[in-house]
Specification:
about 425 residues
């Protein structure tokens, strides 16, 4: 019973942490993005602090100060009234239910056991970012593990799985935000939210896999881009998007590539005169990432131990009908496991053919680039191909879905459902 109460307190604390003073977000017109906007700023601050090796006990004090300040402004400005409705009630019930389910099913995925929790324990036990170079997979970014450590320390019992509850929160909130873009009555939005939670929910959500973070932050990035796409010349909006890009850079190497492909899609489809500052800031973020990887002595390989035997000179050794057939077969199997992928593919093309506007062009181009990247990653792998596909293609596709899920509500909103 005590543990259940502590989970309740922890979930409420995460909600309050996501309620920065509403006046901070006057540049965001969509009130449904209030919680994600707060989470983005909080995540970005934590990422920056992680570079300076500040002990977690000080980070914990900072988070509790933020909670107190947020409570003050929620009461003072009566912003709590934003959350008194059916949608937010169902959202919290789902979030709490998934958190309680985690408490009775603590299984960790293979990558989580061998890489991510080890990095997390490094921070929990006072280790620094530099210490990660002596742990497994120093070529893997660490921010997901850092979040795991941070949010396990602010819990009452300091149980590691309280850090994973933050992953569940991100996932639930990202799906909740998507459901809010469907132009239907509140009751129908609740039904859509529950349906999407059921569709997207899988063992990646609570098992310590980093893919759930990429999926969630990618949805936030897509939604904020939709909001800001006509005003990218405004520094505050461009800077906000850059914060999300930078967060994604530090979760997984594949996420770094997906983020670059999303940027390329924007660059190709939007007028170049609107993107000068946007482009310069993006390239600056890449330079900063490379600089920090070198500073911390991290391996810059995309995946250490893989692609070692690949070169331009022997490219045709990897391109064969047999390898292509195997990749297509596993793609098909993954589509049956994640059927929403096929629906996103269909809606992305339908949206484009029905209306060739900028957003539909970006989504379609980005989706195709994502598929091309995933296909190429397996085509040129040095690992045994069947093994590599069987253990990772589902998770790679799950990351890509986050960057392309906009196609769903854009297509749905073409039909005037009341």
């Amino acid at each position: 019973m005590t543990e259940i109460i502590s989970i309740f307190i922890h979930t409420v604390s995460l909600l309050i942490l996501s309620c920065f003073p509403y006046k901070m977000f006057t540049f965001i017109k969509n009130k449904g993005l209030y919680l994600p906007a707060s989470l983005i700023i909080l995540s970005f601050v934590l990422l920056i602090l992680s570079f300076f090796n500040i002990k977690l006990q000080y980070i914990e004090v900072l988070l509790w100060i933020i909670i107190v300040i947020n409570i003050f402004y929620l009461l003072k400005d009566r912003n709590y009234l934003l959350f008194i409705n059916l949608r937010y009630l169902i959202f919290y019930i789902v979030f709490l239910s998934l958190s309680l389910d985690l408490a009775v099913n603590l299984k960790l995925g293979w990558d989580a056991q061998n890489y991510w929790i080890i990095k997390s324990l490094n921070f929990i036990h006072g280790g620094s970012v530099q210490d990660l170079q002596d742990l497994p997979r120093p070529d893997y970014p660490y921010f997901g593990s850092y979040l795991w450590a941070v949010f396990s320390t602010i819990s009452i019992f300091d149980y590691e799985y309280f850090g994973r509850i933050f992953y569940i929160y991100l996932f639930t909130l990202s799906v909740f935000v998507i459901s809010g873009y469907f132009k239907v009555k509140e009751t129908y939005q609740v039904i859509i939210f529950l349906a999407l939670i059921t569709i997207f929910n899988n063992n990646y959500i609570s098992s310590g896999f980093q893919e759930v973070l990429v999926f969630s932050y990618a949805i936030f990035l897509s939604c904020f881009f939709i909001e800001f796409q006509k005003s990218l010349q405004e520094t505050i909006k461009t800077s906000f998007l850059m914060m999300i890009f930078f967060i994604i850079f530090w979760i997984k190497n594949e996420a770094f590539i997906f983020a670059i492909l999303f940027f390329i899609s924007i660059l190709i489809c939007l007028p170049k005169k609107k993107l000068l500052v946007f482009s310069l800031l993006f390239f600056l973020l890449i330079i900063i990432r490379i600089f920090l990887f070198n500073l911390f002595d991290f391996n810059l390989d995309f995946q250490s131990g893989n692609y070692k035997s690949f070169s331009v000179m022997n490219i045709f050794q990897f391109i064969s009908p047999e390898r292509i057939y195997i990749i297509i077969r596993y793609f098909a199997i993954a589509t049956f496991k994640i059927p929403i992928l096929a629906f996103i593919l269909l809606t992305a093309y339908l949206n484009f053919f029905l209306e060739k506007n900028t957003i539909n062009k970006i989504i379609l181009l980005n989706f195709n680039l994502n598929i091309l990247f995933i296909f190429s990653a397996y085509l040129f792998t040095s690992f045994p191909l069947v093994f590599h596909l069987s253990v990772s293609i589902d998770r790679l596709i799950f990351q890509a879905i986050g960057f392309n899920s906009l196609a769903l509500f854009i297509f749905f909103n073409r039909f005037k459902i009341k």
